[in-house]
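U., I forgot to send this yesterday:
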Amino acid sequence: MNHFAYPATLVPDILDGGFVVTFVDLPEAITQGDDLADALHQAADCLEESIAGRISDNELIPQPSPASQAHYLVHLPAQTAVKATLYNAMRQSAMSQTELAKRLNSDEKEIHSLLDPYYVSPLSRLEEALHIIGYQLVVDCVPNAV
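Result:
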């Protein structure tokens, strides 16, 4: 199952004020914010950029580590989480974009768009692509932690 809530560490920035944010599982993802709310907002943007970069660079997207009480959980936006799930599913199944396009009665350009974190794709099409690979999209909502 793909869960995209990553533990982040917020450390007070003694010199400049605010907080520095790092992620346990994504060493490249570092940001900061002027206060707690801003740091968490910046963390969400940073997380999304980190995952988008990993998709673009064809790198592994790690599963999140368990969070401790010292961490804040930062959630990937839904559209990006679904695209990351499709990306992970394709990697795990070793299905090429060409093969997925064939099975979707589509072309590779659409598959590229389905995987592009910056392109807004129809949820129904993402769900259909996941189904072809053997996955079912399940939506779960949780109350805000902060």
